[in-house]
Amino acid sequence: MIILVDQVFRPVAHASLLPSRPLSHAERSMMILVVSHVRLVREALTAALADNEDLQAFGASSRESIEAFIAKAKPSLAVVDALHPEAATLIAAVRVRIPKLSVVVLAMQDRDEDFLAWTDVGISAYLGPDTSAGDLVSAVRRVAAGDIVYPPRLTALVLSRRSMRSSERTAKAGMYALTSREREVAALLTDGLSNKLIGRRLCIAQPTMKNHIHNILAKWDVQSRGEIAARYRRTIQADAELRGGKLAELRESHAPRAGRFAH
Q1: Exposed end of the chain (fewer CB within 10 Å): N or C?
Q2: Residues 6 or more apart from 142 whose CB is under 8 A from it?
Q3: Nearest by Cα to 170 from 90, 231, 124
Q4: Of 118, 150, 182, at which residue does a domain stop?
């Protein structure tokens, strides 16, 4: 079944083609919203999907036409033309009404930056310019079953990005949870200095020195000086890798400066 919602940026001209009432579960099978600002693309996609008995496809191009549709029917999935200039905004608007809407993006250009931008929006499938009608239907069915459908190269790109973001969070939560003085203490502990020698190096009294160590243990949730040293090394390494491997420079920035006194 194909329903084409008006191709221009105004309320639906062919309103009679919309469901006249909310459809029953049995009637609606899988409802798919097709979003494209190009009428030919919109009609081709809806035809390819609706050629399957268990799929119903509805074409829309603007916020007004989409709202007119979802007022009477609730799609579980949207197929989006990535070249639509307002595609991400329109999907965000639909998700206000249908938070669990799955999104399949059809990209006419194979660019990594476009793909990563769409992953931030939250998508279940990303199909490139060589996608066939059969590929599209297969991807829709897989997404409906709970799968994520990305090309292998782009899957690796997502995993790499997630790993980098995880490293960033680890580094920030680790090193920057400490004060500048606590970082100096941790650096000297890692060099194997005793409390007494660290106190002399930083010109701080032993009670103050013990307070710093206690604070580091609490903030990093570790139990000993050895664990502080190990955590410091891991955090410094993660932070340095994010900055192009400049470990020596980062280490220098955390080293204590002569002549500094604690108050």
Answers
A1: C
A2: 125, 149
A3: 231
A4: 150
Q: Which helix (H) or strand (E) holds 210?
A: helix 206-220
Structural domain including 54 reads 2-150
Structure tokens at 76: 């579980």
Q: Which two tokens stand for residue 183?
A: 């970082």
Give tens-digit pLDDT for 135-154. 999 999 999 999 888 876 66
Q: Does the model's pTM come out above 0.85?
A: no
pLDDT per residue as tens digits for the range 66-105? 988 888 888 999 999 999 989 888 998 898 889 999 999 9
Which residues, 6+ apart, have CB-to-CB distance to 73 below 8 Å?
18, 19, 22, 23, 28, 31, 58
User: Is the domain of 16 the same as that of 119?
Assistant: yes
188 in the same domain as 241? yes
